[in-house]
TrEMBL record:
It comes from Amycolatopsis thailandensis. It is a multi-pass membrane protein. Residues 42-164 form the Integral membrane bound transporter domain. Keywords: Membrane, Transmembrane, Transmembrane helix. The chain crosses the membrane at residues 29-50, 86-115, 121-139. Its main location: membrane. InterPro entries: Memb_transporter_dom. It is found in: Membrane. This is Integral membrane bound transporter domain-containing protein. One of its GO terms (cellular component) is membrane.
Length: 352
C-alpha cells in the first residue's frame, strides 16, 4: 500500500518542491515554460510577421535551443543553422541531379547523417540528414524560394529560443553545486570516522573491506562533484545572472582530498589486515592517528578552517613519534605510511 500511495502522491510532492526549494524541479519547470513560450513566439513571428508558408521548423528549432546553459544555447544556434544550411544545400544538389524521389531520399539521408557526424555540428548534426529528408519528401528541394524559407525559419526559431533562454531567467546550477558539496563533505567525514575506529584497532580486520566499499561511494561522489563544477562554470559563462552564483572553490577543495584520502585508506587497510606487527603502529600512535582522523572529519562536516589547529597539533605529534626512537614505533613502517597522506589532508583543507 505504501508504494502505491507514494506513486500517487509523487506528482504532488514534485509540485510542492517547485515552490519550496530552488532545486532541479523548479529549474525544469522554468525551462519547460520558456521552451513553450519560445515556440509560440517563433510561430507567431513566422506566420503573422514574416508570412512564411508552413513554418514548422521555426517553433521546432526554438524548443531545442532552450538549453541547460546560455552557452549551449548560443553554441547550438550556430551549430543548428549550419547543419540546416548544409542539409538544404545537400537536398538542392541531389534533387537537381536525381529525378527519383525514392533514390534521392536515400542518398540525402545517408549523406546527411554521414556529414552530420562531424563533431563540429555537435548534437545538431542529425539536422543535416533530417532537413534534407524533409525537403526531398515534400518536393521542395528544387524550389529556391522554399529552400530560403526553410533556412529563414530555422535561423529565426533558433535565435528566438537562444534569446529567450539567455534573457528570461537564464539557467544556473548553483543548487547542484551546493548539493554535491554537502553530500561529498558528509561522505568524506563518515569515511574518516570509520577509518579512525579501524586504525585504533577497535574493529575486526574485516571492517577494512567495509571502509573500502565506502571509498567507492566517495569516488562516485567525487565524479558527481566534478560534473557539478563543470555545469556551474558553463552555466555562469555568458550568463546575465552568473555573478550571483556561489563559488565552486569549497567543492574543488573537497575533490582535491580524494588522492591523499585514498592513500590513507589503503595504508590503514593494509596495516589492519597484516599479521606482521612491525607494519602496524603501536597503540599510542594509533590513538594519535585516530584523533587526527576524527578531527579532520569534524572539519569536513563543518567547513570551519579554525578547527584545523587541533589537526596541525596532532600532525606535529605524529612527526615527533616518527623521529623519536621508542620501542613502539622505531620499527613501524605503518605509521609512516599513514602520516604522509594525513599531512596532505590537513594541508589541502587548510588551503580552503
Amino acid at each position: 500500500m505504501g508504494d502505491v500511495r507514494n506513486r500517487w502522491t509523487a506528482p504532488f510532492g514534485w509540485v510542492a518542491r517547485v515552490f519550496r526549494i530552488p532545486g532541479e524541479e523548479r529549474r525544469s519547470l522554468v525551462q519547460t515554460t520558456k521552451a513553450a513560450a519560445a515556440a509560440v513566439i517563433a510561430w507567431v513571428v513566422a506566420t503573422s510577421v514574416l508570412k512564411l508558408p508552413q513554418p514548422f521548423l521555426a517553433p521546432y528549432a526554438a524548443v531545442f535551443l532552450v538549453q541547460a546553459t546560455v552557452y549551449r544555447s548560443l553554441r547550438g544556434w550556430a551549430q543548428q543553422v549550419g547543419a540546416v544550411s548544409v542539409g538544404v544545400l545537400l537536398a538542392a544538389g541531389v534533387g537537381h541531379i536525381v529525378p527519383s524521389v525514392t533514390v534521392a531520399l536515400g542518398m540525402v539521408v545517408f549523406g546527411g547523417l554521414l556529414i552530420g557526424s562531424w563533431r563540429g555540428f555537435g548534437d545538431s548534426g542529425v539536422w543535416v540528414g533530417v532537413t534534407g529528408m524533409l525537403l526531398i519528401s515534400y518536393g521542395s528541394a528544387t524550389e529556391p524560394v522554399l529552400l530560403a524559407d526553410r533556412l529563414l525559419e530555422t535561423a529565426l526559431g533558433a535565435a528566438i529560443g537562444a534569446v529567450v533562454n539567455a534573457v528570461v531567467l537564464p539557467p544556473l546550477h548553483g543548487e547542484r553545486l551546493r548539493a554535491a558539496t554537502s553530500r561529498l563533505a558528509s561522505a568524506i567525514a563518515d569515511v574518516l570516522d570509520e577509518t579512525a575506529a579501524l586504525v585504533r584497532g577497535g574493529e575486526p580486520p574485516e571492517a577494512a573491506d567495509a571502509v573500502q566499499d565506502r571509498m567507492r561511494d566517495v569516488r562516485s561522489l567525487v565524479a558527481e562533484a566534478e560534473d557539478a563544477i563543470g555545469w556551474t562554470r558553463e552555466g555562469r559563462f555568458l550568463n546575465l545572472r552568473g555573478r550571483r552564483e556561489a563559488p565552486e572553490a569549497p567543492l574543488e577543495n573537497l575533490v582535491s582530498l580524494w588522492p591523499p584520502l585514498a592513500q590513507l585508506i589503503d595504508a590503514v587497510s593494509e596495516a589492519a589486515r597484516s599479521e606482521q606487527p612491525f607494519q602496524h603502529p603501536g597503540e599510542h600512535a594509533r590513538g594519535v592517528v585516530g584523533d587526527l582522523l576524527e578531527a579532520l572529519a569534524e572539519v569536513a562536516r563543518s567547513g570551519d578552517p579554525d578547527r584545523l589547529d587541533r589537526c596541525r597539533e596532532l600532525v606535529g605529534e605524529i612527526d615527533h613519534l616518527l623521529v623519536t626512537p621508542t620501542d613502539e614505533v622505531s620499527t613501524s613502517i605503518g605509521l609512516g605510511a599513514m602520516a604522509l597522506p594525513a599531512r596532505r589532508l590537513v594541508q589541502r583543507l587548510h588551503a580552503d
